[in-house]
Every structure is written in C-alpha cells, then in structure tokens.
Write a structure and sequence with these properties.
The strands form four sheets. Strands 4, 5, 6, 7, 8 and 13 form a six-stranded antiparallel β-sheet that branches. A six-stranded mixed β-sheet has the order 15-16-17-18-20-19, with helices on one face. It has a four-stranded mixed β-sheet with strand order 3-2-1-14, sandwiched between helices. The chain contains six helices and 20 strands. The two termini are 31 Å apart. By secondary structure, the chain is of the alpha+beta class. The chain folds into three domains: 57 residues, no CATH class; 158 residues, Nucleic acid-binding proteins (OB fold (Dihydrolipoamide Acetyltransferase, E2P), Beta Barrel), CATH 2.40.50; 112 residues, Aminopeptidase, CATH 3.40.630.
C-alpha cells in the first residue's frame, strides 16, 4: 500500500493507493486533545459526573470515575481547578467530554502521567514481543506513571523508548507548572496538534511520502466532494447510500444497475465485497462515529456472510480510530461502532 500524508496550511490529508481516506480541516474549533484548566461547576452524584466550566457556552462533562482502574487522581470537589484534557469535542447539544486521565502521545509510547497502567498496542500480536515491551515499560515507568507501548516501539531500542518518555515527562511538568499558576477556566495548558497526531498515528503503519501542498490538487478535491454525497457508486454498477441520524449512521448497499455476472448470487456477493472497501474509506473520510448499521444485500449462504464480514474487518484494519465490527444482528444488519473524537465532517 502506498500511503501519502499531504500537509497544508489549513488542512491535512491521507491517501492510500491514490484514494483519499482522511481529511482534517485545521480549524480553531476542533480542540480535541487540548489540555486546559477547568473549574468544577456542579457535581451530579446520581449521574456519576461533574459539569465543568472550560470557558465555553456549554460546560464540559467529566465522569467522576475514570475508565482505568489504575488512575491515581484524588476525589473532586465543587470549585476545584484542575488540568483536564478534551477527549471528545462538543457535539449537538452535548458539551465536550473531558478526562483527568491525561495522555501525551508520542511516536513510540503514550505517556499517562496520572495512571500506573503499562500496556502494549493491540496491533502487536506476537506474544514474546508483547511480553518484552511490557517489561520494558515497567522498568522505565518504575511505578511512577503509566505507559502504552505503541506499534513502532516493537522495533525500537530501550534507550530510544526511554528518551522519548523523558521528553514527554518534561512536557508534563511544564503543563503542571502552568496549571499551578492558575488563571481563568479554559486557559490552554497544551494545545493539541491534529496534524502532528495524524502523522504519529500513521508513521508506524508505514508512510511512503509526506508532501507539502497548501492547495489541494483537483483529484483530492474531487474525492473530497464525493464525501458529501448521499449516494456513491460502486465499480460493478451497484451503490451505497449513507444516511446519518441523531443516534446512528445507516448505510444501505444496493445492486442498482450491477449485472453481467453468471448469476444473482455472484452479483450480490461481488457488490457486497466492493461495498466493504468504499464503506471503510467513507467512514474514515467523513469521520463517522458511534453506532453504524450496514444493510448489505441479503446473501443466501453463511459462507458468503462470513467472507463479507472478514473483508469488512480487513478494510478497517488501517483505521487509526478504534473500530469494532460486532457482526450480524437478528435482522441481518451488520453492526459496528467507531470511537468518537473530533467532529464529523458535515458538522
């Protein structure tokens, strides 16, 4: 696969074999990853959360208990000022989702200064490599902070990993110093850089070229325009229809004018397989998130159903956002979920 990262003054894009799979407008409105000062406004024990003043019209949402069992933060109280990270941007009528379990991502590791967890990327499958990296992480952290060993760390020397970790700790201490100085709610302690994060996520996966282009070329713009269309064609004559609702996204696969194969069963299977690749690219490009239901064309055999599911999983393996293919529902729909981070493209 030939992957190219294209970086401009106000956008960043990724192509794979000439096909656009990600496009990030670099706007001031997208603050996902920022670390800022927040003041606890109201604690809601019944909802197990707190509403936090972060200097916006809508308060942020902070869970009272973090997802990780090894998070080391203290109990929060109304009026507390603290360093928080934007985990998910505000969406519709919901404020930004915040966390005290701050992460500082690098190329080799992700530093978790408020945690003690040592983990290894799920992309590293070899058990010996996983065990080795976990032991390396334990030695470097020495029980003082948490680390996740990224895919790129599998080929790195321990000295390189330690050096990057130390650089991240220096950044964290600078953030803490700014937090101690205080200031108004919403004060930025560290600005997230979506373009740099995109590069860090993709470099371990293999990037052939990083290109500077302030003005996107016509082909990239053509593909970007398609990402706003509801109906998208497939090579064999079929199509997919993408409809977004408040609670989920529904994608419908149709044979449309697909024809020319020996029988209907072959036509259906080929159309569904073609749809897998286009669906994966459009989900990544539009940054669709939450629940996604795919209505593939009905197939007669479990063998064909299994092949389509395996193909869909393979097509999503390049996605840097956590995506889970849950499988077929009782109604014959493919159910999947994708983690929400930044805003979807049409918002």
């Amino acid at each position: 696969m030939k992957r190219i990262i294209i970086s401009g003054t106000d956008y960043c894009a990724v192509t794979e074999d000439g096909k656009l799979v990600e496009y990030l407008p670099l706007t001031k409105d997208d603050r996902c990853g920022d670390i800022l000062l927040g003041r606890i406004d109201r604690i809601m024990p019944g909802m197990n959360c707190a509403f936090v003043n972060i200097g916006r019209k809508m308060n942020g949402f902070l869970p009272l208990e973090e997802a990780s069992n090894s998070f080391s933060g203290n109990k929060i109280r109304s009026g507390d000022m603290m360093a928080l990270q934007i985990k998910k941007e505000e969406h519709g009528g919901k404020g930004a989702f915040l966390t005290r379990d701050i992460t500082l991502p690098g190329k080799l590791v992700i530093l978790m200064p408020m945690n003690r967890y040592i983990g290894v990327s799920t992309r590293i499958a070899d058990e010996k490599t996983r065990d080795r990296l976990k032991e390396t992480g334990k030695r470097i952290a020495d029980g003082k902070f948490g680390l996740i060993m990224r895919y790129a760390s599998s080929d790195a020397a321990e000295g390189e990993i330690r050096e990057e970790t130390e650089e991240a700790l220096i950044r964290w201490n600078e953030i803490l110093s700014e937090a101690i100085k205080g200031g108004q709610a919403g004060k930025i302690l560290m600005q997230g850089d979506p373009a740099e994060q995109l590069k860090k996520d993709y470099l371990p996966r293999g990037v052939e070229e990083i290109r500077e282009e302030n003005v996107p070329d016509p082909e990239l713009l053509r593909q970007l325009k398609l990402a706003g269309e509801r109906i998208l064609p497939l090579p064999s004559g079929g199509n997919i229809i993408i409809d977004r609702c408040e609670a989920m996204t529904v994608i419908d696969v149709n044979t449309a004018s697909a024809a020319g194969l020996q029988n209907k069963e072959q036509t259906v299977l080929q159309t569904n397989l073609e749809a897998c690749g286009l669906i994966a690219r459009q989900v990544r490009l539009r940054n669709l998130s939450g629940i996604i239901l795919i209505d593939f064309i009905d197939m007669e055999t479990e063998t064909d159903q299994s092949l389509v599911m395996e193909t869909l999983e393979e097509c999503f393996r390049q996605d840097r956002v956590k995506t889970v293919i849950h499988g077929w529902t009782h109604l014959g729909l493919m159910e999947m979920t994708r983690k929400r981070t930044r805003r979807e493209r049409s918002e």
